[in-house]
Amino acid sequence: MTANAPETHPSDETLRGQRVGDFSLRHIGADESAQKAMLDVVGYESLDALADAAVPSTIRQEEALALEDPRTEAEVLAELRALAKKNQTAVQMIGQGYYDTITPPVLRRNILEDPAWYTAYTPYQPEISQGRLEALLNFQTMVQDLTGLPIANASLLDEASAVAEAALFMRRANKKVKEGAILVDSEILPQSLAVLQGRSEALGFDVVVIDVANGLAQYEGDVVGLVLQQPGVSGVVRDLKDVIAEAKGRGAMVTVAADLLSLTLIEAPGLQGADVAVGSAQRFGVPLFFGGPHAAYMAVAKGLERSLPGRLVGVSVDDAGLPAYRLALQTREQHIRREKATSNICTAQALLAIVASMYAVYHGPDGLTRIAERVHGHARSLAASLAGAGLELLHDAPFDTVTVSVPRRAADVVAAAKERGINLRLAGTDAVGISADETTTEAVIADVVAAFTETLGLEGELVSADAAEGFEIPESTRRESEFLTHPIFHSHRSETQMLRYLRKLSDRDLALDRTMIPLGSCTMKLNATAEMEAISWPEFASIHPFAPDEQTVGWRELISGLEDDLAAITGYDRVSIQPNAGSQGELAGLLAIRGYHLANGDSNRDVCLIPASAHGTNAASAVLAGMRVVVVATAEDGTIDAADLTAKIEANEGRIAAIMITYPSTHGVYDGDVRDVCEAVHAAGGQVYIDGANMNALVGLAQPGKFGGDVSHLNLHKTFCIPHGGGGPGVGPVAVRKHLAPFLPGDANAWHGGADVPVSASRFGSAGVLPISWAYVKLMGGAGLTRATQAALLAANYVSKRLADYYPTLYTGQSGLVAHECILDLRELTAKSGVTAEDVAKRLIDYGFHAPTLAFPVAGTLMVEPTESEDLGEIERFIEAMISIRAEIDAVAHHEIDLEASPLRRSPHTAAAVVDSSWDRAYSREEGAFPGTTSRQDKYFPPVGRIDGAGGDRNLVCSCPPIESFEN
């Protein structure tokens, strides 16, 4: 413990004062005694006094949060059980992109429910992310093999938004046809069409639905791209080679939205000539979750990888020449592209992609094929049985879905099946769709057949799959090519092997279950077990997003309650939880603003003002909402430059649509002039968008809906405890004032145009993880949430104060305080020594820490956010590590050791490097591996040394490398 460090042990008096069952005392890391010691260092008598000094009085909320009293963990779990019982589980045969599946228990227990996986952050520090990067590379390889395309990304948000991303991708990647329509297969999933049409309307390009069976000649204009669905929403499987060739002949690019399981039996899109394949990996072991979170995918042809949206895992080498994984082509990330962005994808669905990849590892190609053949057999049995009863089928080539013509009686058949505990798809008034899946049994098929025959007064009998002739996948479309040939998909057949593989990968990573992750802007706080517990209960996890409302009472009660609580917390009037990422929340908010202006006849308002310091997705979202980005300069103190704001407003008179403000600012301070900024934009006729990424510094202290905001998105995966999952799931609800409520996202499954543009495939987005945030709010109550915010302010200011003599804080607000995070400025140290912020980030690994946010929002800095969940002992451990590193920097600056030979530049240190008999470094093994007070007993060793990112980009490899490449 360094000289200025306070005593961290709680006093007996403090322990006696804790209330039994007060969850906030579990959530907030520093107890009363530790907080007192920290306050003494910062210079304030109480948390209230600190908050009063830090938060401008002009924005402080006057009343306590109007929330119910906090519950205990037992009470919250009991209430969740009661809500779950209000949902009705059923045999889900609705299909339409969502299918029941069996999550192998070894994957459920050791990924989905394992904090080693779900508390990890996005793998921007690859040396401590090798486990999840390997799992994501498995996902990419799986998708590449199944789609027959050489490059796949590490997941997207859902199939509908992936289709929209594919359309935008074709518009920018097509070198032959620059302008023209996107033609869409009439067999596309309805929710995908709705999301695509919403995007196209904002960006001003045509989407034309056609029956591809009649060829493309029916559309005479220029065609940029064609989107096909395989199998179609009706279940039909078609040979797409000819229509793909026809599209190529007209200069168009082609996307196939393909079901991954079907691709074990149906020829791969890439081998049929497609440029792009998209879809969902949900049925690879990921529960229905009432609509999400589910990992979508996108794969593209060779040469198109630099236009690919989302993250891409690649293979490079570390400083010892060993293969090492990292995120590739980082210049595609939207925090760099900003107003030039063509996608706003930031977080995706890493955790769910990992589950899907391990489902493929668990089953292998033979196991997946057996599942697909069983599903197909049930569909053939169903088709033959219903045709034998005299019913007309819309097609006779199903993979898993049969659609039956039942003029004027469709609803009766669906109701009869529901009485038997089976949900079918009502396809208008005259047809019924039935989708088989991994959980389907022969008894279920018999019940479905009975629902038809008894309702319609027909004679019929069950035809077994073996006897169902004439309903096979057409020979011309059957898959002949191999897939999943890499040894990883053949090596883990026993549960023992699978369990050890998962443990090996998780041990390679550094997640929140092992150490503080002090990432500024990312709010890596406690994801309590009680909050997580309900998400895998069948009454929540096995509900189809299009199930009848009477079966989802508990879900909708939970969701409406959470929306009401979030409205009360933020000071807005209405909340929609549909957006399934923060970036999608931004887009939904901006589309609401756009819709509002159009409804008022202000179609000329298309300028979105964005401060230079804003999150990169802000500008990207504005572009996707059809707005023109105008950047507002940042003043020297980190605030919005008032003079430049005035100039930009005047230069765009009558055109201002909105301003996007991050508050507290991206620089980690409460700007005192935020009300002035809001009033200036309102006076110019614009709306104010307040980015809620930093809401952890506001809850209980200030409400953006009351101090000038018209709309905000929130990050439930930050402030409200949904874990990051290694890069997703995220949830980005959008909160609005009353006048924008009519423009909140609508239901994509029922949308046919209108101001309520949907942004996600399902009505409630990633509903499956909402019990986490619901539980957090109920456990904390208004007072607990406010204490958490105050504790976060205290932790950040404590770190800033304790490190002031070693690393100056770049920006401070009133009273010299920061908000919930502080930017440590290393630029002067770098100028004197050559040691970079990246060197410090890599050296922190040797101390057992995930690095703070590197080089954002200011190059050459580290942004630190301890959060309220870290106890004083862990905060002090981080502070000591940073002080120790400063001593190493000074040694370089004073020429006591050359930078290139120093432990800073040669970090992180692997166990292999430390025990190497040829150790010849300018410092001891102990200094390299166990710096400062690093524990000898619980030491984390990274599996690889410093990775060559640039070299990996020059030699791009984005699928599993051969096993022999890892041999020494």
From TrEMBL:
One of its GO terms (biological process) is glycine decarboxylation via glycine cleavage system. It is an enzyme of class 1 (oxidoreductase). GO terms for molecular function: glycine binding; glycine dehydrogenase (decarboxylating) activity; pyridoxal phosphate binding. Residues 26-452, 493-746 form the Glycine cleavage system P-protein N-terminal domain. The modification N6-(pyridoxal phosphate)lysine is found at K718. Its cofactor is pyridoxal 5'-phosphate. InterPro entries: GcvP (IPR003437), GDC-P_C (IPR049316), GDC-P_N (IPR049315), GDC_P (IPR020581), PyrdxlP-dep_Trfase (IPR015424), PyrdxlP-dep_Trfase_major (IPR015421), PyrdxlP-dep_Trfase_small (IPR015422). Keywords: Oxidoreductase, Pyridoxal phosphate. Its EC number is 1.4.4.2. The keyword Oxidoreductase applies. GO terms for cellular component: cytosol; glycine cleavage complex. It catalyses: N(6)-[(R)-lipoyl]-L-lysyl-[glycine-cleavage complex H protein] + glycine + H(+) = N(6)-[(R)-S(8)-aminomethyldihydrolipoyl]-L-lysyl-[glycine-cleavage complex H protein] + CO2. Residues 788-909 form the Glycine dehydrogenase C-terminal domain. It comes from the Bacteria. SUPFAM superfamilies: PLP-dependent transferases. Belongs to the GcvP family. The glycine cleavage system catalyzes the degradation of glycine. The P protein binds the alpha-amino group of glycine through its pyridoxal phosphate cofactor; CO(2) is released and the remaining methylamine moiety is then transferred to the lipoamide cofactor of the H protein. The glycine cleavage system is composed of four proteins: P, T, L and H. This is Glycine dehydrogenase (decarboxylating). It comes from Falsarthrobacter nasiphocae. The gene is gcvP.
